[in-house]
Every structure is written in C-alpha cells, then in structure tokens.
Prior knowledge:
Elements: H1 4-11, H2 18-21, H3 25-87, H4 94-104, E1 116-120, H5 127-136, E2 162-164, E3 167-169, E4 173-177, H6 181-184, H7 195-207, E5 211-212, E6 216-217, E7 228-242, E8 245-257, H8 258-265, E9 275-281, E10 289-293, E11 302-309, E12 312-320, H9 328-400, H10 404-427, E13 433-434, H11 435-443, E14 453-457, E15 462-463, H12 465-484, E16 494-501, E17 506-514, H13 521-525, H14 529-542, E18 547-551, E19 554-562, H15 570-576
Parallel strand pairs: 14-16
Antiparallel strand pairs: 1-4, 1-8, 2-3, 5-7, 6-7, 7-8, 9-10, 9-12, 11-12, 13-15, 16-17, 17-19, 18-19
Amino acid sequence: MQGPVGKSFSEKNLAPRWYERFPRALPIGIFVLTMAVTLVSVFAIERAEHQRQIAQIDKAAQEITAGLERRANSNAAFLRSAAALFATRSSVEPALFASFVDQLRIEDSGAGVKGMGWAMRVAPGDIPMVERVMREGGARQFTIYSIASVPGHAGAAPSGGATRGGRGYAVPIMYLAPEDARNRRFIGFDMASDPVRRMAMDRAELLARPVASGLLHLVGDGHRGGPTGFIMVMPVFGSAHEGGKRVLRGFVFMPFEAAGFLRASLPADDSGEPLAVRLYDGQEAPGRLLASAHPEIHSGRVVRRGVELAGRHWGLVVEAAPSLVLSMLSMMTLLFGLLVATLLMALARLVGHQVAEDRLALAWFEQQSSIRDSLTRELNHRVKNTLANVLSIIALTRRRATDLDSFVESLEGRIRALSATHDLLTQSEWGTTPVGLVIRTELAPYAQGTERHVDIDGPDVQLAPNDALSLGLAIHELATNAAKYGALSVPGGRVSVRWELAGNATARICWEERGGPAIDPEVRRKRGFGTDLIEKIVAHELRNPVDLRFEPEGVRCTLVIPVRQRGNFAIRAGRKG
C-alpha cells in the first residue's frame, strides 16, 4: 500500500504545462508585452512633446503677429499725422516736409523703413508746368517718368501714366527722405503707373486711411531685381469741395523692405531654438513670399496665422527647427523599458527552468516513493515465501529425522543453502541472478580438492529472485544426497551440471552423476525427504515439473526454470540511479 507522501505525489498532475513545453514562449511574450507598453509610453511622451512644441510655436507666432501689428500701426500713425498736417496747407513745401521728417526720425532703416515720401496728384496737362517749377526750385533733373521706362519693362507710356475712374492723372514722387543718392533716383516716378501701387492708392482713397500695397520690388534696385517689399500709402485731401466731394491732393507714403520689417518684429529672446518664419502677401504660395527668416529649417511642425496689416491680409507661417527622432525623455524611457524587458525575460527564463527542475524532482520523488512501496511489498512477499519454505523444510525434516542430531544437521544445511542464495540476491539487490553463480555457490564445498570432480557449464541465463531461491535449494539437496550416497561420496565419482535455453522464456538444467556407488533398487522405490523437497516444493516454486530419476549409473535430475530478462527489473535499475 502506498504511503501518504507517495499517494500525495501520485495524485498530482505532473504533466508539463504549456510554458514548459514551449520554454521560450513565456520569456518572449513578457519581453514583447513590456516593450509594447514601453512603445505606447514613448508614443504618449512624443505626442505630448509635439503638442508642447506646437504650443511654443503658436506662442512665438502670436508674438511675431503682435510685433508686426505694432510696427504697422506705429508707421500708420506717422502717415496719419503727416496727412493731417499736409491737409491744412495749401501746398507741401520742401522745408515743411523736411521739418516733419526730421521730427519723426524715420531715417533709421533697422525696422525695414526706407523713408517717407510725398507724391502729388498731377493732371496730365499740368505735367510740364510741375516739371518746370520743380527744376526752378532746385531739382534740375526733375522729370516725371512711368513704370514703362524702368529697366525690365518694355514699351512706352505717356507722362501722365494712369487712367483712374475715367480721369487721367499722374502721382509723381515729389520728395523722399532721407535725401541720399539712392532716394534721389526715385524723385519723379509716377506711382500711378504701377498696378500694385495704384491698387493700394485707390483703396486708401476709398477708405481714407493708411493701406499697405501688395508685394513689389523696390524701384531703386531695378524693378525686377531689387529686394521684395511693400509701401504703405495715406491719402491727403484738400479743404475745398467739388460738388460735396473731397479733393485728392496726393499721397504720403512709406516704402518698406519686407525682410527688415519682419526681422524687427521677431521676438528679442534668441536663447531657444531658431524658428523658420515666412511672411506671405495673402495666401501661402512661393511667388507671394514677402520675407523669411531661417528658410533652411524644415521640420513639419508648423503654425499658420493670418495677419491684418493696414487693410491688407498677410499670411504668417512659423516652423520649428528639426529635432532628434526621439526626445531625451523618450530615449530614457525606451532604454529603461528595454532594460526592464530584458531583465523580466531573463527572470522568466530562470523561473521556467526552476519550475521544470522542480517538476522533474517531484516526478523523481514520486518514482522513488513507488519504488519504495514496490520493494516493501516485494520484501513482504519474499519473507513470507522464505518463512513458508523454512516451515516446510522443518516439517519434512522432522518427519524424516531419526534423532535430534540428524534433525539439526539436515535443517542447518538447508537453512545455510537458503542463506547462501539470499546472499547472492542481496549482492544483486534482489535483481536478476545468473544460473551459474547459484550453482557454483551451492557446489562450492564439494568442488574443492583434487579427488572430487564437478563439471559446471552453460550460457549466461538470468533468474528472478524467487526462482534463484528454489534452484539453490534444489541444487543443495542434490549435492547433499550425492555427498552422502552418490558420486561425491567416492573418490572416482563425477557430477556434471549443464544448462541450456529451452525457449524464449525457459531454461533446462541437467544434473547427472557418474562413477558413484550403485543404487539399490530398494532405495529407488523409497522416497526420501530430498525427493519430496525437490518434486513438491521446488517444482511448485518453479512452476514446472521436475524429472528426478535414480538410475543404476547414478542420479539424473532435469529442472525447467523460467528465464527473466533484465528489462523486467528496470525498477531496480531506476532505484540505483
């Protein structure tokens, strides 16, 4: 019967789990899951970082927009002041214009302002008279010219230049400050001959307030080759009225270089990363770019805003500088996640190995418990069989003994035969025992000396423990009988013990005596204890009949015994390991 520990082990389901059958699945699964969580975290960090950068870019765009509006409004205020002053005078004299410009101090071109000018409305018929008066006043080279005479524009146009609303008149530049060599080339240019400038002047006259023009190239550097810019114009009306309508006397204006105007509006704090800033005239398009800062920057993180400046819609695009593929926090998170995933994978691998080893240990303990229970049952069976044999030997010996000494002597010999065979079984750990070893052990006392002859021969045949005990007892009885009455009792006697395989599961052992005393027929008819022991007890244990014959030449006995293979006793082999 199994013990409590063996029963507990046998009740456990020791079948390997799925993670034992696939030892790499669990570590790889843990690694993949940990890295998936890490990548999700990195994605969230990068998304938050992107939103933060967009917020910073939007803040910078707001500051740039505010700077543009502030500078546009301040310059528009200058133009309003000039228009209000010039409207109160019957004419704009050079001294009045110069005095006003000196007070404004607009000669600083750091903000993109190229100066301030006055352009007077002149009817076509008054052009020769205006040119004559200006030359007499000191401008000896003064000539009113149109856009068609500028390099890059083929064709000719009348000096009047433009036709507006069905009335033809020119708007030549009369004064332009600061008065330097560059600006002196602009004196006499008819701004009404340029469609861009004319459109701005028409809108300013209609709204009676400062209006910015569209994108243009400043005339002084060659109309198509100069820097891009724009002008801001403000109409000046006279005090007289014609039919209730205001009389346009001219325009006061300011030319701007777009790049300088944009630079002056950028935030003063340059401690952060540079930003790409692009200012467009209206919609964002390559041909409508007014100015840009850091045009080489392209990252895709863009903020677009619309700006209304002096009645003109501009487009502002702010783009952040390219950054690393991943932010520093994302890199640290990724590296930490990779480290944790690797450690968890290694830990899962170690735990998996430990679980497998523990399961093998449990299986080994269960096997050992089963072996122990089997050996206990086997030992109980062996002891019972041995005691039964001893009791049978005692009973038969007592019936055949004539006195106490003969009883003790016979019993002692048979007990010693059992003991010798037990010693063999103990040495083999109650495994298989060779036939030859059992026979030689029992015949050892009779095979000594030169006068006695015992021939033992046969193949390697293994016996089960019970069969070895029975064979040893039979050989002991035959040897004892031969020593007392048969071939071993005389010097010329000879005993031959030979065996051979009789089939796949049996072996035949032949005991033959020759050269001993002749056997009395009366002895052959009497059945002694040895005969009963061999034919009853041994035959019963070996599960095969025993052929015992008392022939005149000597005793002849044939035993058929079962043959056991070593594989039948694998449980003991397992116990040895």
